[in-house]
Amino acid sequence: MTTSIRQDDLIESVAAALQYISYYHPTDYIAHLARAYEREQSPAAKDAIAQILTNSKMSATGQRPICQDTGIVNVFLKVGMDVRWEGFTGSLDDAINEGVRRGYNHPDNTLRASVVADPQFDRKNTKDNTPAVIFTEIVPGNTVDITVAAKGGGSENKSKMYMLNPSDSVVDWVLKTVPTMGAGWCPPGMLGIGIGGTAEKAVLMAKESLMDDLDMYELQAKAEAAKTGGPALDKVEALRLELFEKVNALGIGAQGLGGLTTVLDVKIKMYPTHAASKPIAMIPNCAATRHAHFVLDGSGPVYLTPPSLDLWPNVNWTPDYNKSKKVNLDTLTKEE
To answer: Which tens digit of pLDDT belongs to each residue from 239-283?
Structure first.
């Protein structure tokens, strides 16, 4: 059965979703971050996580951006083969970019425009955060499955891609590479890893994996249950868990302040590759993790349901002015 998707419904849904993710963390991220807060032993790292959680709830309550860097928009489309487009005045990409334009220029919550045209020379700001980076896949069905994400520059700049030899260790490469990323990617977040395919396929898989729900605590529970006769982890699950534990053991921690939690989850996607190759890419997601998923089925625009504020933990960070020190930046010395 053919489904008609109207241009205005696509535009409105994209714009609404971008507003939504600007101030609502995914609830799975909040749940994992709350557990990390409870188990954190480092005072500095615990304080940093408390600030992230407090900021997150303030953003959700006031419907204001989680971070001043409101990101470059990534859109992943899975278009059903039985979809028919209705009322389009331009291309599919044109419609999505109009949604981005409206979402970022919303009068009640205008978001920072960060995209510059001509990346090598003039680098002029496009003023409306267009164009988005759009990936389209044609699949069976009669709906349009859409994931939108806003990716900040700090974490995107720490993306890594390498051509491993087939015998090289993925674990060794990750553990060697993560420390070179420093804390500029604003942990705690996620690591998305793509293995296989070609160079560009590995990078795409790494980015796509960051759109998956966090489930590391469920994976840890499964590993524990396997010790007493439960289902064993598959190879990818075992690799995810190993990387999660070993990356956190590096001690980079929340905002680079040390502690127990650098990553809340590690995601892996794989694809067949040439016998002579093992391409690998790794992309981190920062503490301002922002993405949402929805489906257009021809019934109209989609508006995502706001999460309950009860899902946020009872953490209220306030600055301790007794531990603060006033400095004069004009006379600041190395010792200070």
So the answer is: 999 999 999 999 999 999 999 999 999 999 999 999 999 999 999
C-alpha–C-alpha distance, residues 301 and 28, integer Å:
25
H-state helical runs in the chain: 7-23, 27-39, 43-62, 92-104, 153-156, 170-177, 199-209, 216-226, 235-248
pLDDT of the residue at 318: 86
- Tens of pLDDT, residue by residue over 54-87, are 999 999 999 999 999 999 999 999 999 999 999 9
